[in-house]
Amino acid sequence: MNPKIGSALLALSFIVIMALFFLLNPSYERSLEAKYYYSIGEYKKAYRLAKEALELDGYNKMATTIAAQSSRSLVYVDFIDEARGYMQEIEKMASGDGISESDRAKMVMMSHIVMDRYKKLAPSALTDEALIKEAAYYNEKFASIYEKVSQ
């Protein structure tokens, strides 16, 4: 047998063995599944699967990265959900004939809460860009509301 062909076959068999290990190893299987769920925005499920993968193999770098990405994204999702809820409450208060002093105080308080939480978010390279933009949008909205109702 030609030494070049033998080397090529050896390299190819090594790649096949590594691919099979990667695909059949339960830890990496869960990591791939977590990566999929992260890519479609299912951060809670991705985090859970990545943690399961890490329990099976603590050295699984893919699972470590996905767990960190998902954890960071969940912080943003919680912030956005809270901001949406406050925005709905403010819209209800503003839809009436006028805004009472107690409603103004509530709006100022809600604005403070959202703006303070936004300052603590600390985006990273691992955070989904769409989540960062949406969080910034709500921060700007509440800063605007604060300026209007605090005068």
Descriptive account of the structure:
The structure is a single chain. The chain is mainly α. It is built from 6 helices and no strands. α4 runs parallel beside α6 and α5 runs antiparallel to α6. The longest helix is centred in the middle third of the chain and has 34 residues. The protein is rod-shaped and about 90 Å long. The relative contact order is 0.10.
Rg is 24 Å
Uncertain regions: pLDDT < 50 for 5+ in a row?
A: none
Helix content: over 70%
List the secondary-structure elements in sequence, H or E: HHHHHH
Report the structural category. mainly alpha
Largest sheet: none
Instruction: Return the average pLDDT rounded to an integer.
Output: 88
Number of strands: 0
Write the layout of secondary structure elements.
Elements: H1 3-24, H2 26-39, H3 43-56, H4 61-94, H5 101-119, H6 129-149
Helix pairs in contact: 2-3, 2-4, 3-4, 4-5, 4-6, 5-6
